[in-house]
Design a protein that fits this description.
Elements lengths: L1 H12 L9 H15 L3 H12 L2
Helix pairs in contact: 1-2
Amino acid sequence: MLRAATTAAIVAGGGRSMTLDSRAQRLAREGMFLLVQAQTAEARRTHLGALASG
């Protein structure tokens, strides 16, 4: 749900969503940090495997 909301905010804002003062880019960076920070080594391997297999 949060990923979809963040993606929608980025798409709706277009290129200006990636400026440093944009709330959308901050939410995207925070979400990516939490995705990596919260993963165990096993979860990270599984996630990378899923991404690699397409």
